[in-house]
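[Automated response] Your request has been received and processed.

Submitted sequence:
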Amino acid sequence: MVIKVFVATSSGSIAIRKKQQEVVGFLEANKIDFKELDIAGDEDNRRWMRENVPGEKKPQNGIPLPPQIFNEEQYCGDFDSFFSAKEENIIYSFLGLAPPPDSKGSEKAEEGGETEAQKEGSEDVGNLPEAQEKNEEEGETATEETEEIAMEGAEGEAEEEEETAEGEEPGEDEDS
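Generated structure:
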């Protein structure tokens, strides 16, 4: 199975070029086999890409912009869906590929389409708040200690000022 990335090599849009570079760079870095197909120089590629992006995935103007990603004939998504899959660490599922054997997601996909590692990842996400709570509690403790020290320092300064003021007051009382 070959991943097809439809790009426009002569795009005038910097945003499109950056998105294309990010997709291609990620696939290269992760040694995922892919084929880069230029829609700017090849009318057949452009037509095929436009015809095979599902209607609900097309923008309002009806013309999908590169990069568009396919696994053979199967539509995977555009840059935004690629980016989301990358952020959620489900890129192999997004691309319709089996994870490499040395990755955590190497277990077989189950009926729900999730691998064991993805389910574990979901469970880990559930544990994040516990870790965050622990960090927040520790942070609150540190914050409380800092506040106590600041308060003690302020109280000490206030007491010194009071003593100084008290020292002057008795002298004033004696004069009256």
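Summary generated for your ticket: Residues 59 and 65 are 9 Å apart (CA to CA). The chain is about 55% helix and 10% strand.
If you did not submit this request, please reply to this message.
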